[in-house]
Amino acid sequence: MNRHFFKLAILLSLFISVRAQAQLRKINIAYTATSPYQAVLIVAKEVGLFKKYNLDPALVFVTGGSL
Questions:
Q1: Backbone angles phi and psi of 22, in degrees to 5
Q2: Which of 26, 49, 59, 64 would staple 44 via disulfide (CB 3.0–4.6 Å)?
Q3: What phi, psi does 11 have (nearest 5°)?
Q4: How far apart are CA 10 and CA 27, in angstroms?
Q5: How many CB atoms lie within 10 A of CB 52?
Q6: pLDDT computed for residue 65 by the predictor
Q7: How far apart are CA 11 and CA 34, in angstroms?
Q8: 28 contacts 60 by C-beta, under 8 angstroms
Q9: Quick check: 47 and 17 in contact, CB under 8 A?
Q10: Burial of 49 (0-12, 13-18, 19+ CB in 10 A)
Q11: 13-38 average pLDDT score
Q12: CA atoms within 13 A of residue 44's CA, in its CB half-sphere
């Protein structure tokens, strides 16, 4: 009986630790132009590539150059 309880306790602790690691990590990514070179970031976010690696990016447009 104790052996089954011990196995169940280990499985539950592993499940809880895996769930804790599965949270998305929020990051900010800046891009400087609306050009095909920057489209990779937008497409990657839209298709969920960042979520595959547990990232939740906020794409921030930053104007560059002289005004």
A1: -80, 0
A2: 49
A3: -60, -40
A4: 33
A5: 9
A6: 66
A7: 48
A8: yes
A9: no
A10: middle
A11: 74
A12: 17
